[in-house]
Predict the structure.
Amino acid sequence: MKQLVLDLGAEAPAQSLDTFQVGANAELTHLMHQFAQRASREHFAYLWGDTGAGKTHLLQGLAATPASRYIAADAPSEEFVFTPEITLYLLDDCNLLSPQAQIDAFALFNQIREHGAYMVSTGPVPPAVLPVREDLRTRMGWGLIYLIHGLSDDEKIAALTQAAEARGLTLSASVLPYLLSHFKRDMRSLATMLDALDQYSLETQRPVTLPLLRDLLLAHPQSDSTQ
């Protein structure tokens, strides 16, 4: 029997604002659509929350709009240079900025404000306690600050059930609760596992039941996580 190769480290497809699971983040999601259209009265926003809450998902969704630039924390210095044709800058993982990148980011914030452009930045904690230089923390607090609320287990199950139905995949009732208890809990990893279950089901000609899920997790113990 051919063994399925499950690679959760593979590059995932680009995220979009429309695929973000809203949950308790309706106001934030509306604001991000305003930023996408450059229609927000506020020109700066800072998003914070736990790993897997959707911060990078939102930034990548915004990066798909015209005249936008996604900037990772370890991006080269030239990415932090203001460019007139770019009207929306998306700075991810601000807690990971190097000392030089913090200087570059500080200058970029000032230029964005001077030229009336937009900026959305992210981190795991509010700006006031972010481990960066004080003048940069001040800039990150210029606009709106939002905590991204993670989905409840029921909301995750509902979203995954909807995704399964959209691809014509029938899941036994125990599959998703077990998956949440024995695997990574962020939606991106869960959605990737759903794709793997679909593929494994087709390859083995077995329905997606709890035994099938257990077989898949046992075959790839490095992917199992009870966090």
Notes: The first helix runs from residue 26 to 36. Confidence is low (pLDDT under 50) at residues 1-12, 222-227.
